[in-house]
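We treat protein structure as text, and this decision shapes the records that our systems exchange. The tokens are whole numbers drawn from a learned vocabulary of local backbone shapes. Below, we set out a record of this kind in full and without editing:
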Amino acid sequence: NLQPLLAAKGINAHFIVDQGRSGNQNYTRDGGDWCNNKRAGFGILPTTKTPDPLIDAIVWAKNGGEADGTSDPTALRFDQACASEFSLQPAPEAGTWFQAYFEQLMVNANPKIPKLL
């Protein structure tokens, strides 16, 4: 638990927890699978109602559907991690809308996201 260590230094820490791509935990992570991970899903919906008084909020820090990077090796901002076997492809430039990734995050969401309409 990090909070007691910080409190001992005079820092009254509270936390936010990013659950934006944590919905699918049923696979092994290897450290190189950060880019448009093809197994990711949305996690717990953002809320300020948390199970721990030290957690101020659960958030999705990054917009769902925003590409992490491109899988196009001819692109100026190409990153090899985005062309790995762990990445959903073909992927657009980082920061642009990636519809297929958004749909995958919805399908793999845990808990499932309720239909709005």
